[in-house]
Amino acid sequence: MQSGFQDAARNLESVPWAGPTLRQPFDAAAAGMQQVLESAHQQVVGIEQVATLTGWLAFLIPVTIVLVIWLPQRIRFVLNSSAAARFIDAQPDLDLLALRAMATQPFHQLARISDDPLAAWRSGDRRVIDQLADLELRRNGLHRPKLQDARRPQLPASTGAQVSTGSTNGVSTDD
To answer: Is residue 159 pLDDT above 70, yes or no?
Structure first.
């Protein structure tokens, strides 16, 4: 459109006596069109920048949430599960897990197992100790091994994903 105004201005300039006067409005319109084009270009650049920023934010906000909140919790869970799995290879190790369950599990969970889990643990009540150990093993994503058949806890085949602890003892944790 700007070139059309400039062409018209050139053509009007050839009109005798009035050419330069007739050309002035067309030159002004061509200059105004240039300003409109520059303004439109600046708006396009601004919109592209906002769109790029919005795209990056739409990507970075969820990734940051995952990295800041979920990942440390997951790493802590894997480390705790790996450490717990290394302990389980004999009945006395289940006693340690039962003691840990009494220290870390909520009271309503302990009350489901026994009216006085500490007294039952001190007296060596195998049923209570086994239930407390199972409670702590579940919190760590493990299952109690069959101590007469295996020396380390194994996951049942029906669970989903398994995460290897990286050790050579064959212990796996589940989510």
So the answer is: no
